[in-house]
Structures are given as C-alpha cells and as structure tokens.
Write a structure and sequence with these properties.
By secondary structure, this protein is α/β, with parallel strands linked by helices. The chain has two domains: 7-152, NAD(P)-binding Rossmann-like Domain (Rossmann fold, 3-Layer(aba) Sandwich), CATH 3.40.50; 154-337 and 367-391, Dihydrodipicolinate Reductase, domain 2, CATH 3.30.360.10. The chain has helices at 32-47, 63-73, 82-86, 103-112, 127-141, 157-167, 199-202, 206-222, 344-359, 367-385, and strands spanning 23-28, 53-59, 77-79, 93-96, 116-120, 147-150, 174-182, 226-234, 239-242, 245-248, 254-261, 266-272, 281-288, 291-296, 302-307, 318-321, 391-392. The strands form three sheets. The protein has a nine-stranded mixed β-sheet with strand order 16-15-14-13-7-12-11-8-17. Strands 3-2-1-4-5-6 form a six-stranded parallel β-sheet, with helices on both faces. Helix 8 (206-222) crosses helix 10 (367-385). The longest helix has 19 residues, at 367-385. Bound molecules: alpha-L-sorbopyranose. Residues 32, 183, 209-210, 280 line the site of alpha-L-sorbopyranose. Alpha-L-sorbopyranose binds at residues 32, 183, 209-210, 280.
C-alpha cells in the first residue's frame, strides 16, 4: 500500500536508472505492537506530510497468521524469515516489533545491511546487546542510515507540551518528579505463563516493560540524565499455569526506584502489572520552583499546569485540553476539542521517523538514549539485588 503523501523520494530503484521510488517498509512482528505500528504506517500519510513509502512486507513466524495480519493491516505481502526480508533491495526501513530478545540480532543485521531501523522499547534485554546496537547505530549513522527506539509516549502531545514548557523554564528549576506506571493485566494468578514472564525472553518484568517508559519520560521531560539510583523489585505471583503445569515466574511484577539526576532533581518511579484496577495508568507529576505539571495517560488529552508565579490566592492547577492547532502534532488532526487517543502517538512516531530519514537528521530517542535507559534499569536491578544500595549510573 503506497502512502497518499508526496509521490517521490530520493531512494532510487535498483534497476530503474535513478528513478525515485517510495521507501519500502518491512515490519517484524504482528502482535500488539506490530498491530499498533501497522496502524500508524497505514494512517500517517493521510494526515502528515511525509515522504512516499510502501507497506511492503509483514514478517512473523506463523505463515498463516502473519498472512492474515498482513491482509488486515495493509501490508502488500507477508514472510516468515526476517533475514530474507532485510536482504531485499526494495526494503529501506525495518520496523522491529518482535519481543526484546530478538531486538539486537535483527537491528544490528538490518543496520549493517543499510536499512533504517525503528525498534520497539526497551532497546534490548541486556546491556551487552544494547551496547552492540549502539555501536551498529553509530556506524550506520556515519553512512546516513537512521535509527530510533520507540518510546512512543514522547509523542503524546500533552507530554511533548510538558517537555516544551519545562524547557522554556515555566517550571523554574525542577526539584522533584513522581512517575508511576500501573497496570493490572497480570493481577489474576490464573493468567498463564508467557514470554513476558520469563527472564530469558523478557529480560525483566514490569521493570523493562513499563519502568523503561517512566525512566525515559523523566530524562526526556527534564532534558537531564540519571546519575544515581536505588531500587526494589518484587514478584508477588511466583508461579503461573503453563501447558504442563505450574511454571516459575522469573521476572518482577512490580518495581520501585528513586533516581537522582545530574541537575539535582530527584524522581520516584513506581511500576506494577498487578495493581488491581489500574489499567494503563502512566501518571507523571513534575514540581519546580515556579510551577508544576500533572499528566495521566488514562486522560491523554489533558495536561494540568500550575503557575507558581501568580499570586498564591489565584494559584491552582489549570486543565489544558491539548487539542489546539498550536499544540504539538495537533494541527494534523481534527478541529480543537476533538480528542485523540493512545494510538495516535504511534502515528506521530512514524511521521517523525520518516521525516528524519527524508531530511537526514538523526532522530530521537536514539539508540544511545535507549542505552541510557537500560543503564538506569540495570542500576535498579543491581540496587535491588544488593537490598538498598545506591548505585552510580555511568553514561559512557
Ligand atoms: C504492556 O505492559 C504494554 O503493552 C507495554 O509493553 C507497552 O510499552 C505500553 O505502552 C503498554 O503496556
């Protein structure tokens, strides 16, 4: 399926005598994230000004299922071997939506093959894999090949606006951040084992899955880097039903951490996948010397701002409905007041990645930024294992 946007791009056809052709995209994975990314590729050209591209091929292990997903999600074809796909001359972008244990192998191979790479978060399951991915990204960047990690919440307009307000100094000096990400999809002990509950496939539990988002948000919103962490992990449900009986859960259900940032701010992070009643609650509060901000992903179009520079008797959190054309990304969507949802952030991500490729500007979050989050997560694990030690995070 070709995007309706600009018909040409500087990429040239293999045998086409320099004829411009659309960028060819391959996505690897067709489950939850593969579906969310596919939806973004399918819609981005209808709303944003992006270079021409084609949804060429969707890759997955089960031939019948991936063929059906490709048909439903607008891909021209499906395939079962990602290696064949990244070797193709008509593929320019590889979008990795496969589980974390596959990220490093696919990303490094794709970058070496000269493909631009978008990879779902977290960057990888281990620091070693993350470092290998950064090395491959740096070598590829020197050849004009781009890479980005999918911390999608950076592209929720209310959070982009929060970052802008903080960068403009509207909060003064940020002292304190509270970031929590609470879900309950694992609260039921009868929920069966899956790859997300095994350390060898998922790397960690709520820590890598959701604290990665929270840590990225803290660093992104403040434009700062974590230097010190103290953490705790806990597994409440230590066994889950497997096909042949109970199996041990080898990752955390919940994690807690305090983070110190280079600029002196302190953040708390709390995440859980067993917080009964909280469905997908990414809540962030930022407190500065001159103002404060509050956000809750369960109301994604709203940002609450308190201006601490007005007289105290007038102070209070005001609700900003982030749907004005002046707000980040919103001019592409509907008239003001017509709210958008969770999936739109993926469309914004697709737009930003395509634009970076078109302009040759390295996009953010880079693999280096993804590695920086991994180092914080590794510090939390180390601190948790040592029971309360404070761990220094080195960013080089
Ligand atoms: C599952 O906890 C999950 O799908 C995460 O993997 C995503 O990154 C998050 O956006 C929603 O929750």
């Amino acid at each position: 399926m070709e995007s309706a946007a600009h018909p040409t791009h500087s990429t040239t056809d293999a045998g086409g005598a320099g004829r411009p052709r659309p960028l060819g995209i391959a996505a690897i994975g067709y489950a939850f994230m593969g579906k969310a990314h596919s939806n973004a590729w399918r819609n981005v050209g209808s709303f944003f000004d992006v270079p021409a591209f084609e949804q060429k091929v969707l890759v997955g292990r089960n031939a019948d299922e991936v063929a059906e997903a490709a048909r439903l999600y607008g891909w021209a074809e499906s395939a079962t071997d990602w290696r064949d796909v990244i070797a193709r001359d008509d593929i320019d972008i590889v979008d990795i939506c496969a589980p974390g244990w596959l990220h490093a192998e696919i990303a490094v191979a794709a970058l070496e093959a000269g493909k631009h790479v978008l990879v779902e978060k977290p960057l990888a399951n281990t620091l070693g894999e993350s470092e290998a991915m950064v090395a491959a990204a740096q070598a590829a960047r020197a050849r004009g090949v781009q890479s980005m990690v999918g911390f999608t919440y950076r592209r929720v307009p209310a959070l982009t606006l929060a970052r802008d307000l903080i960068a403009e100094g509207r909060l003064g000096t940020v002292r304190q951040v509270r970031a929590s990400y609470l879900q309950d999809w694992l609260a039921d002990e009868a929920t069966p084992m899956s790859w997300r509950l095994r350390k060898e496939s998922a790397g960690s539990g709520a820590l890598g899955d959701t604290a990665s988002h929270a840590v990225d948000q803290v660093q992104y919103l403040l434009g700062d880097t974590v230097t010190e962490v103290s953490g705790r992990l806990h597994t409440f449900i230590t066994e889950r039903p497997g096909p042949d009986g109970p199996e041990p859960v080898t990752v955390d259900d919940a994690a807690w951490a305090t983070l110190t940032l280079a600029g002196g701010a302190v953040a708390s992070v709390e995440v859980s996948r067993v917080a009964l009643g909280r469905k997908n609650a990414l809540e962030i509060e930022v407190f500065g010397t001159d103002g404060s901000l509050r956000f809750d992903l369960e109301n994604p179009n709203e940002l609450y701002f308190l201006d601490g520079t007005v007289p105290v008797r007038e102070q209070g959190f005001s609700r900003i409905l982030v749907t004005e054309p002046e707000h980040p990304y919103l001019s592409a969507w509907w008239p003001q007041g017509h709210v958008i949802g969770w999936e739109h952030a993926f469309t914004h991500q697709a737009h930003d990645f395509l634009s970076a490729i078109a302009t040759g500007t390295p996009p953010s979050p880079s693999f280096e930024e993804g590695l920086s989050v991994q180092r914080v997560l590794a510090g939390i694990e180390e601190s948790a294992a040592a029971k309360s030690a404070v761990v220094t995070v080195t960013n080089s």
